[in-house]
Write a structure and sequence with these properties.
Helix content: 25-40%
Strand content: 15-25%
Structural class: alpha/beta
Radius of gyration: 19 Å
Number of strands: 9
Mean pLDDT: 91
Strand order of the largest sheet: 7-1-8-9
Number of helices: 9
Length: 233
């Protein structure tokens, strides 16, 4: 049934076409026909060499309309910061107890925050969190003493992203149910942040290609010039 839905959605897509942002985003929403509220995702191929340390693109941005889902937040903190995290709405707060739980295979969370003093402890599970994009980093604001505000931002819908080994960023901008206008505003916020993080050593075209898709839908290639320069100008 899922394969049939995908084939039907694929009929609506022109493979060789570079869609304008509005038409591409609307079509991505239209092709989200699964029996659940699909995410709308952006993929951006960057003109960087991901193997170079000075060309790593990694960050986070608080989207104006959130991600449209419940974000489960883990916080590594002690003392006053532990209490601050709990009051701010963190789902799980702890230290060594959480380390052991994660080592045993528990990964029922979406974001990880930590106070700076807890990072030597969190480093014990870096090999578990790292490959899943969950290892907290100062670059994304996930290592901080401002735990309360950080937890609140994550719960509202803070999009974290990093370039992969193929120089591509994959990031959700929300759920289908949010509608076109809110998704477009989230897209603009995400792209503005990605543009701000362009490495000084990156030469030539920065945004090489863009695509948008629903979780179970086909990818739609966007016109990178229009979808970046025009929409963000």
């Amino acid at each position: 049934m899922a394969n049939k839905r995908y084939k039907e959605s694929l009929k609506k897509v022109e493979n060789d076409k570079l869609y304008e942002l509005d038409s591409g985003l609307k079509l991505a929403i239209d092709t989200a026909t699964a029996g659940f509220d699909e995410s709308i995702d952006i993929s951006a191929k960057l003109g960087v060499d991901a193997k170079q340390a000075d060309q790593q693109v990694r960050g986070a941005v608080s989207l104006p309309h959130g991600l449209g889902k419940n974000i489960r937040v883990v916080v590594f903190a002690k003392g006053e910061k532990e209490e601050e995290a709990k009051k701010a709405g963190a789902d799980f707060v702890g230290s060594e107890d959480l380390i052991e739980k994660i080592k045993s295979g528990w990964l029922e969370f979406d974001r990880v925050l930590a106070t700076p003093d807890m990072m030597p402890t969190v480093a014990k599970i870096a090999k578990i969190l790292g490959p899943k994009g969950l290892m907290p980093s100062p670059k994304t604001g996930a290592v901080t003493n401002r735990i309360g505000p950080s937890v609140e931002a994550e719960k509202k819908g803070k999009a974290s992203f990093r370039v992969d080994k193929n120089s591509i960023i994959h990031c959700s901008i929300g759920k289908k149910s949010m509608g076109f206008e809110k998704l477009k505003e989230n897209y603009i916020s995400l792209m503005e942040e990605i543009l701000k993080l362009k490495p000084k050593s990156s030469k030539g075209t920065y945004i090489r290609s863009l695509s948008v898709s629903a979780t179970m839908g086909p990818g739609l290639n966007l016109n990178p010039i229009q979808a970046v320069q025009k929409e963000l100008s």
